[in-house]
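Tokens as discussed.
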């Protein structure tokens, strides 16, 4: 499903070679994803990257995060300003789940490398189209699903495939996380929960 557009990371030597010599110029669209600040902090700490700015069209959200250390000192840009940045080579997409794929599609259509946070939005056909476009432009798409290659998960998948457990007729999966009342209301009011449930129950075949 991932195709040639998927890569292990934009900071690898192959990605930097594909992008050209010197530091890789990268921007970020969105700050609402739970990993947005951490992703940006990681990129800012890496000598391979030059962060050119952040796009956050929601003014209330922008005011909420602008003084956080992860964002301090960075320019706030419109999408148009970001895509017109001279020498821009990659964009990280860190919107809320519902907005991930639309923003990601703009990035690959612009011929840029893409970091896309998980889950991959709410449309498998659109996600496939994004990967195909990235492949056509010979650009990399980075997405991390750390549990997929976890040895315990690999053993579990092996057990199912080789019949150690007999016929598996049901799966219960959960990923516990301490949420505040406000965060819990936010999760329950979006389509993210069924999307995540789908991802959990479809990972074994």
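Sequence:
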């Amino acid at each position: 499903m991932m195709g040639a557009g998927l890569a292990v990371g934009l900071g690898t030597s192959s990605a930097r070679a594909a992008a050209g010599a010197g530091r890789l110029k990268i921007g970020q669209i969105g700050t609402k994803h739970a990993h947005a600040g951490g992703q940006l902090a990681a990129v800012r700490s890496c000598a391979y990257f030059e962060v050119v700015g952040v796009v956050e069209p929601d003014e209330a959200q922008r005011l909420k995060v602008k003084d956080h250390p992860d964002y301090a000192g960075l320019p706030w840009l419109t999408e148009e300003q970001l895509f017109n940045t001279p020498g821009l080579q990659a964009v990280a997409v860190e919107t809320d789940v519902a907005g991930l794929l639309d923003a990601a599609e703009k990035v690959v259509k612009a011929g840029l490398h893409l970091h896309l946070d998980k889950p991959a939005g709410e449309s498998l056909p659109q996600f496939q189209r994004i990967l195909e476009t990235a492949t056509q432009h010979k650009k990399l798409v980075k997405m991390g699903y750390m549990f997929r290659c976890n040895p315990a998960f690999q053993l579990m998948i092996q057990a199912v495939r080789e019949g150690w457990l007999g016929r598996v007729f049901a799966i219960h999966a959960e990923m516990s996380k301490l949420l505040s009342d406000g965060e819990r209301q936010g999760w329950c009011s979006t389509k993210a929960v069924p999307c995540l449930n789908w991802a959990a129950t479809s990972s074994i075949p």
